[in-house]
Q: What sequence folds into this?
């Protein structure tokens, strides 16, 4: 029969250590955090065999005074808090007082330190928690911690460590992330005697550039939202720059690296419809918040955190990012405008271009008045700058109305537009999807929708599933512009449709939307995307010159003209220089 | 075959038939025009299988015969010739064109390959003034639908009987109807749906005022002018019951100058939404105010004098629809017959003039 024994302090120490120190990277993390809390200006880390054989962290911080050194390695001994209430005020990274004690219990540990107030330091050594050496040492100010043979006395743990390379990668990744929060601290990492990384003390911009790479840096955008209580700032990538995973997402609260669902979700939402749903933006995000509004003592690794007002944090992150990457910020509009101007050189308020020509499908005028005035006018100012049109007027093979020179449709799918220095190719479906998506989104967020009343109301007979979806969405459909009412068993009658919709197809459009699988659940976003996709022009739809022109103008008036709601690009730009290179012409035009 | 045709005549007629030739086709023979020279004269024909056009050509027949020729190429050659008479000959499947010192030999096809021009299955025939018919077409053709899922709406419905002819078209958002009381003789009543391409082709060829013969069969319609005859297939119905959507209780009458309203609508719609073209009509005592407010773009407003003495209200319309109506209405003033802002508006010219009765219905563009 098993006997219940009180565990020895040695055993409990090892068990507890397991929670904090799972692998070498955790030890490095704890030690670096201590150094940062000790106001170090320079932290160097040295590891052997991925930290399994040796971890040495030395700093030039305030040091530990001789008399306090023994205390520093005791369990729950810390300089950072004295009472439990202090936890709600901590600005330091550490506070639990577990780190050194944990490392001590699972390794051969030496600590040597000289405090700022003393002339001589003190050095102590332990093996598996047992004191082996204690004496004075001559050294510079600061602290050096050396942990050798990690887990030498916990073989079970040691067995589960990864390869040296993998452990080193974890350490490197950790130092990279953490160093973002403290750009004014220099970091050096050596592995088996070789430099792995070396960051000089620098400005935030410089540190971000080092971590993200100088090629990437220009595509990051700074953001800062500070209301005096909560500051949310950092750097985030423009829509064209994404990753297939979250490895380049660095999240900090009060300089602490965190993992948080609320924050991740807010980022995701900000980029929704701008980038593909399986891609992730690159971001360094810093939240500075009064410590009493967060709880960091959720888990020993301190990576989890609770905010007292998650919702506020979520909406602030989401909106500051949204503004930064698109929409309302002046700079992005400027960028869109500059692209627009390259495509359509000419004066006037560019946004006005987005509207204007009334291209009702007037059969008789298309047939008999081919020289529609607006097109002629447009072609004049466009060609002033480009004397040699790439696409000559078609010789009657394509009896398109208008000039046929500026906009050219390839296989009734792509719109080619000559611009100065090259051409732009627009995917007509993706472009129209973006236009409709933006429109519907505005409708759902309160902007009024225009409803074209039908002269002959359409009756649709729905399947059970479609009818379920109709019922789920019956409050939402009107805000897009559908006027639908139940009409007997599983039938609905449509009296009005969104104005300007191209392919109502006598009701098939609505039926297709309602038959979308899983529409009921995340109905709004799904509905928006489904509507945008189904109501937009398809590959294979022939467009008149006026329609191509109007589509292009409307695209540039949207919030994110460069991607469709699924995150795919709407347009490509091909420069003459590219073409010349591909035809192996020299730059001088041989 | 050997014929001689003055260049001007040749150019005009060749151009005319090549307009019907489809731009792209999987049947190469359809890109051909058929030249026929027989005892009754010279004719050129072309078809895209839906529409066929044949035109009589003034010229001299020296030797009868037939050949199918590539229409666009021949039209291009003829267009480039310097002047004078053109001698056209055929030897087997080779077409020769001689004019001055130029000579072309063009590979043609056997006339046997050319699709047989369909036989008219005429049930109803009448003659009508081409200009008058053109006017009726102009007032209805614009409102046809382009939604191919309802093919019947993609054409203009004709109803002809001894008392006159009626044309109506609708795309589900608006409707145009024109009715002419005239004696068409003792004919059988017929109701058909005519594709707009047939009507626009007719309009393109009907350049002089003359009496033309219209023949309507079960599946086809034809227009016979002096020089040209056009034959077209009809669309299949049923056409929706348009009579039940023509409002009967629209008792609020608004009278306004057509030209002023048209100019004002064009002006304010400059700032209308690119997708919806919405313009709001506000009616009040003897006043019509047009206004447009588009987010991110701006506002436009214009007041017009009008005659109105009913309740004040606001109705939204698609400016393009309104402009289409105004463009096709006769006379100086037009009358809007209104009901509630959510209901269909009916528009008519104040002075219908002559034997035509024209009305349009436009559904409002509401803002939710």
A:
């Amino acid at each position: 029969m098993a006997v219940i024994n009180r565990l020895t302090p040695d055993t409990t120490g090892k068990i507890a250590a397991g929670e904090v120190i799972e692998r070498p990277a955790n030890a490095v993390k704890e030690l670096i955090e201590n150094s940062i809390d000790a106001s170090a200006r320079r932290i160097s880390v040295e590891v052997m065999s991925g930290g399994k054989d040796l971890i040495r962290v030395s700093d030039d911080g305030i040091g530990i005074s001789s008399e306090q050194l023994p205390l520093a390695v005791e369990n729950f001994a810390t300089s950072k808090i004295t009472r439990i209430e202090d936890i709600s005020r901590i600005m330091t990274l550490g506070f639990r007082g577990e780190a050194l004690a944990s490392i001590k219990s699972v390794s051969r540990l030496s600590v040597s330190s000289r405090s700022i107030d003393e002339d001589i330091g003190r050095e102590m050594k332990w093996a598996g928690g047992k004191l082996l050496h204690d004496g004075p040492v001559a050294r510079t100010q600061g602290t050096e911690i050396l942990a050798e043979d990690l887990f030498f006395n916990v073989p079970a743990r040691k067995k589960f460590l990864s390869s040296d390379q993998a452990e080193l990668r974890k350490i490197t990744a950790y130092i990279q992330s953490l160093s973002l929060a403290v750009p004014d601290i220099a970091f050096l990492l050596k592995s088996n005697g070789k430099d792995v990384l070396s960051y000089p003390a620098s400005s935030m911009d410089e540190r971000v550039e080092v971590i993200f790479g100088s090629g990437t840096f220009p595509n990051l955008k700074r953001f800062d939202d500070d209301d005096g209580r909560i500051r949310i700032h950092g750097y985030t990538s423009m829509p064209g720059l994404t990753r297939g995973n979250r490895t380049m997402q660095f999240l900090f609260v009060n300089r602490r690296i965190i993992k948080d669902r609320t924050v991740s979700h807010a980022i995701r939402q900000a980029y929704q419809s701008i980038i593909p749903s399986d891609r992730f933006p690159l971001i360094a995000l810093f939240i500075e918040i009064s410590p009493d509004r967060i709880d960091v003592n959720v888990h020993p690794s301190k990576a989890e955190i609770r905010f007292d007002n998650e919702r506020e944090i979520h909406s602030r992150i989401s909106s500051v990012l949204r503004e930064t990457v698109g929409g309302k910020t002046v700079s992005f509009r400027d960028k869109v405008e500059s692209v627009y101007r390259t495509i359509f050189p000419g004066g006037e308020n560019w946004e006005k271009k987005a509207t204007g020509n009334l291209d009702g499908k007037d059969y008789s005028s298309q047939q008999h008045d081919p020289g529609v005035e607006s097109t002629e006018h447009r072609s004049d100012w466009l060609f002033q700058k480009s004397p040699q049109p790439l696409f000559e007027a078609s010789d009657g093979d394509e009896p398109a109305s208008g000039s046929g020179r500026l906009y050219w449709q390839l296989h009734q799918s792509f719109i080619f537009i000559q611009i100065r220095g090259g051409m732009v190719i627009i995917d007509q479906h993706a472009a129209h999807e973006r236009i409709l998506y933006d429109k519907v989104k505005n409708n759902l967020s309160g902007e009024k929708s225009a409803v074209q009343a039908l002269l002959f109301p359409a009756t649709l007979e729905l399947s059970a599933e479609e009818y379920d979806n109709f019922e789920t969405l019956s409050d939402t459909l009107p805000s897009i512009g559908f006027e639908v009412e139940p009409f007997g068993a599983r039938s609905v009658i449509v009296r009005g449709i969104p104005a300007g919709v191209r392919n109502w197809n006598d009701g098939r459009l609505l039926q297709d939307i309602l038959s979308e699988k899983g529409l009921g659940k995340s109905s709004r976003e799904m509905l928006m995307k489904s509507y945008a996709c189904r109501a937009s022009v398809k590959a294979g739809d022939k467009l008149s010159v006026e329609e191509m022109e109007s589509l292009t103008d409307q695209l540039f008036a949207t919030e994110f003209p460069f991607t469709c709601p699924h995150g795919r690009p709407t347009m490509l730009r091909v420069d003459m220089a590219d073409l010349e290179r591909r035809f192996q012409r020299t730059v001088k035009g041989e | 075959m050997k014929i001689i045709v003055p260049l001007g005549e040749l150019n005009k007629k060749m151009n005319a038939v090549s307009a019907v030739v489809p731009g792209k086709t999987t049947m190469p023979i359809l890109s051909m025009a058929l030249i026929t020279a027989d005892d009754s004269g010279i004719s050129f024909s072309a078809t895209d299988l839906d529409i066929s056009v044949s035109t009589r050509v003034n010229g001299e027949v020296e030797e009868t015969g037939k050949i199918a020729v590539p229409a666009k190429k021949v039209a291009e050659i003829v267009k480039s010739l310097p002047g004078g008479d053109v001698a056209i000959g055929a030897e087997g499947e080779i077409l020769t064109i001689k004019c001055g010192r130029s000579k072309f030999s063009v590979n043609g096809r056997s006339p046997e390959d050319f699709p047989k021009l369909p036989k008219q299955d005429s049930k109803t025939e009448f003659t009508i003034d081409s200009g008058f018919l053109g006017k009726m077409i102009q007032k209805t053709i614009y409102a046809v639908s382009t939604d191919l899922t309802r093919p019947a709406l993609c054409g203009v419905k004709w109803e002809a009987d001894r008392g006159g002819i009626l044309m109506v078209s609708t795309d589900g958002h608006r409707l145009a109807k024109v009715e002419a009381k005239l004696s068409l003789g003792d004919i059988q009543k017929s109701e058909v749906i005519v594709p707009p391409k047939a009507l626009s082709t007719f309009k393109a060829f009907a350049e002089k005022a003359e009496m033309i013969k219209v023949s309507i069969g079960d599946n086809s319609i034809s227009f016979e002018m002096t020089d040209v005859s056009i034959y077209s297939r009809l669309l299949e119905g049923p056409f929706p019951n348009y009579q039940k959507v023509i409002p009967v209780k629209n008792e609020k009458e608004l009278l306004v100058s057509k030209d002023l309203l048209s100019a004002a609508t064009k002006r304010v719609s400059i700032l209308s939404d690119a997708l919806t073209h919405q313009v709001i009509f506000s009616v009040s005592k003897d006043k019509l105010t047009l206004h447009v407010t588009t987010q991110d773009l701006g506002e436009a407003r214009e007041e017009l004098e009008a005659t109105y003495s009913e309740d004040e209200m606001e109705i939204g319309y698609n400016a393009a629809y309104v402009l289409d109506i105004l463009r096709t209405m006769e006379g100086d003033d037009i009358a809007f017959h209104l009901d509630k802002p959510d209901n269909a508006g009916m528009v008519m010219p104040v002075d219908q003039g002559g034997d035509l009765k024209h009305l349009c219905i436009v559904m409002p563009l509401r803002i939710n």
In short: Chain A touches chain B through 47 residues (CB under 8 Å). The two ends of chain A are 94 Å apart (CA to CA). Residues 328-333, 346-405 of chain A have pLDDT under 50 and may be disordered. The first helix of chain A runs from residue 9 to 20.
